[in-house]
Input
Amino acid sequence: MNLAKKKYKHTLNCNIKTIIEKSYSINNNNGILSKAEPKREIFTYDTMTNYNKDGLIIEKQEITTLNDLNEIVNTFIFEYLNNKISKEYNYSKDGNIKESIFYFYNNNKLKSKNIYDNNKLKFIEEYEYDKQDLLLKLTKYNNHNKIIHTRRFSYDKNKNLILEELYNSRNKKQGQYEYKYFIKKEQLEKQYFYNSQLLKTEIILFDASYNDIKIIKHIDHINPYGVTITSFDSKGNILEEKSDDNFIKYEYSFDQKCNWVKRIEFNNQIPKLIVERDIIYF
Output
């Protein structure tokens, strides 16, 4: 089993059509917690996500609010072809398209992306693969078909990415990222380097079946206080996030289909935020 290929994935149960998430600050009345309405002086992030029957996101609306005064609304629309994303649109609050991305495939592999800003072509990305369908090269062009930069990729015998080389518009190498993997029983350690300098280490602990991630430890070697430990339940819900100067804990309530519908966030033991979910099923 190649642990380096396994990724954290949050799972949702049953056929979900829509999830609406709203966040509220908290009233704490002698230990009895309730949501504060209207929202008080906090940063909140509300979302509405629509899915198709294949479980793919077809629309997502994000509403960011600060102090009940400043509201930013972004709406994303996704289109698919053979369950692969083909078009992506980002709409502003007034309904205008801010950004759009068109995806093009060949033999079931992504070959290129056209990225538009306000309906004007801004970038083109082209992808090249080897015989094992591993990405070898990514080239980014401007709207005049001039190369901006190129990334080249190398892999080990287990198809794990080990080297990412960066080249400028004149094909001069600017730097490189290196990735090293260390696998022990139920544990994967991954180290990230840039030009031989260790940037961060990620340690992932799995359960005995290797199906679920229990804990992820991030070590930022640039930031002296950059150690974060995140623990998960068996469904991928975050339970705790610990760092050198902060401790965030989450408590959940679930519906009959075992999807969470309420989450309370505690910051250093103090209740800070309630997130409620309305879930509509097919």
The chain has a mean pLDDT of 90. Residues 96-171 form a domain with the Lipocalin fold (CATH 2.40.128.720). Residues 13 and 256 are 10 Å apart (CA to CA).
